[in-house]
Amino acid sequence: xxxxxxxGAGIGGLTAALSLHAAGIGVRVVDAADQxxxxxxxxxxxxxxxxxxxxxxxxxxxxxxxxxxxxxVHFDRHGNRIWAEPRGLALGYxxxxxxVHRGALQLLLLDAVRDRLGDRAVRTGTALVRLAEREGGGxxxxxxxxxxxxxYGVRVRAxxxxxxxxxxxxxxxxxxxxxxxxxxxxxxxGTAEWHPVLGGRTxxxxxxxxxxxxxxxxxxxxxxxxxxxxxxxxxxxxxxxTHHHGLAxxxxxxxxxxxxxxxPHYAGWRIGDLDVPALLAATRHILEYPMVDRDPLPHWGxxxxxxxxxxxxxxxxxxxxxxxxxxxxxxxxARCLAHTEPDREAGLRAYEGVRREAANxxxxxxxxxxxxxxxxxxxxRAPDGFDRxxxxxxxxxxxxxxxxxxxxxxxxxxxxNGRGSWGVG
Length: 425
What we know:
Blueprint: E1 2-7, H1 11-22, E2 27-30, E3 42-45, H2 47-55, H3 59-65, E4 71-75, E5 81-86, E6 98-101, H4 102-117, E7 122-123, E8 126-135, E9 138-145, E10 150-161, H5 168-173, E11 181-194, E12 202-208, E13 212-218, H6 221-225, E14 229-238, H7 259-262, E15 270-271, E16 274-275, H8 276-281, E17 287-293, E18 305-307, H9 322-339, H10 344-368, H11 370-381, H12 395-409, H13 413-418
Parallel strand pairs: 1-2, 1-10, 2-7, 4-12, 10-18
Antiparallel strand pairs: 3-6, 4-5, 8-9, 9-10, 11-14, 11-17, 12-13, 13-14, 15-16
Helix pairs in contact: 1-4, 1-9, 2-9, 9-10
């Protein structure tokens, strides 16, 4: 019998494997992909997630791979500065914020799992098909060997669905939910080698997603050490409601997009020393994705089954929470299972008791998009730009930007620096 089976070898699933192993709990991971490749683009890991990975012994590897941004700066679509705030250590956290390539982070975690748990700890080309029945203090799970087209059963003491937005485990637990919910914004994403811009350590946000918004930041320490930058960019464009029918498309992070679709929305954009159209045109592979989430669940699982990461709480990419929340899930899961040993069902319910309402609150805060309301106000009041932001926004509105990020990141400096570890002690 496998103790804990994790379905999904993404950021959340692999962090769960490392955390469970560190807690002395046996774990295996399965993933339907025949090979785990460094796909995707960039993401930001917030200090609360960096703390967890550092406590798992991955701090040096992260520092060697990622870029620690020093500031987040908002601009209007003309490049005029609206607001700025330090990030990570510069804001007072004991841990940095990191900008990193999603694929590089996933492979870093995968290497650590295989090094610590063995090469057989992660089985690729293996899909979870269904749950059979509960038996002998455990659960029988049906897996499919994709290469051999063969199904077989395994017994587990607990099952964790970390299988993403289109989770098979979630569909079993919550049938009839339907497709992800689209908010009318299309996103194009990509990375390009470039010269360092905006000081080399800035997360830049420009425009407003009521029309067009752009987020740009560097994600590679090796590029930085060579005097270059691997810039990650995200373009968000709101599609008129009259054009929504059929435009959402599949929510697939690997879907290719076209430069001709995204470039017209950013004609003439320049942010400091960044020529936005030139950056977009230099991108070899553009990805296209609808901004989607799902409604929060009243419960994640039951019995010996639960959910983790995007399978449990898919959310809009606002406030850099997706991957960071999955890492926090994984750490809390391991702690709760360790503290309720050997009652796996009690451990899973304890994990949900700690994480479900907190994660659901972040989903709803991201859906509210409070920071974007301020950016929209700037676009409405000063469509042709401005000389002084104080002529456009009141001090209270500028202060609301600070409060908005506190709500969407789900933690603050004093809380994180002062609380105990989620590691098992």
